[in-house]
Amino acid sequence: RPLAVCVDDYGLHAGIDEASVQLARAGRVSAVSVMSDGPTWPASAEALRQAARATPARPVDVGLHLNLTEPLPGLAGEPLQRVILRAGLHLFDARALRDRIERQLDRFESGWGAAPDHVDGHQHVHQLPQVRRVLLDTLEARYPDATRRPWLRASRAPGGAARSDLPLRRKADVISWLGATALQREATRRGWQSNGHLLGVYGFDTGADGYRQLLRRWFALAQAGDLLMCHPACHAPATDVIGRARQVEWAVWQADTLDDDLAQAGLCITALSSVLAARSSSAASGAARAAAPARRS
Fold first, then answer.
1. Residue 216: how many CA atoms within 13 Å on its side-chain side?
2. Where is 229: in which H helix or E strand?
3. Residue 168 CB: number of other CB atoms within 10 A?
4. What is the pLDDT of residues 235-262, one digit of tens each?
């Protein structure tokens, strides 16, 4: 089964950038999300470009990691709880919010030289009520060609029988309830594609053995079209609040045992853009076959 794996927070610091580049080259991840206001972007863009293009048969999606909460040089952060409250009550200045989204897209495109392959949000802010509406309006105006649109990350947790096996189910459900289904529904209505479910939610509080066990559980739950997010870093500054967890994840994602765990689960790390393109092609072929008898008659 194809599984998309995305490293978040590229551009936040060099340890994340180095890990992302190495994992992309090794085929261990199929997407990288860029915090374009981060201190190492756009200086780190060329290294990522070379890694993403190193193996043409194994593409890597590179997209925007929309940030509204992380304090960055020259930018004040805002606590996630406050952002959730303001978005839920529609208290953001819509024009200012759109300008902020546009500026981050501008910085991404200036460094990358192309539109993003996907768009998601730091701490999942892109799915919040007011934010998702402004984001979709901004993206539609900026990328009017429906055949060349970025895909959007849906943070929807697996449901049904799979839900009982989900690690840290409560946190995954809370993230999902904050707007994942509504974003996915609105995106589909407007003709935007997204992943199926989001895997990779945990408390950033385990060692390498524990994280490997979590990966195995997510691998077992994964369905075609799902996305697993991760946050590895080769090293991290003291200011990185999840720096230790990033280095734990790095140890597991670059280990030889990962290939065995993927094989045992029957998974192949694949760019979500490739999965979605194949799905669209199959749907178009099916529609053409269904229409053929009507034309003959």
1. 10
2. strand 227-230
3. 13
4. 999 999 999 999 999 999 999 999 999 9
For residues 178 and 84, the answer to whether their CB atoms sit within 8 Å is: yes
pLDDT for 268-294, tens place per residue?
999 999 999 998 766 555 555 655 555
Q: Which H or E run includes 120?
A: strand 118-121
Angle between helix 14-26 and helix 45-52 axes, rounded to 10 deg: 10
Neighbours of 121 (CB within 10 A): 24
Residue of 112, 14, 133 lying closest to 64 (CA atoms):
112
Q: Please give the share of the chain, as a percent, with pLDDT higher than 90.
A: 85
Q: How far apart (Å, rounded) are the C-alpha atoms in residues 194 and 132?
A: 13
Number of helices (H) and strands (E) in the chain: give both, helices first.
11, 8
pLDDT at 172 exceeding the cut of 60: yes
Q: Read off the pTM.
A: 0.93
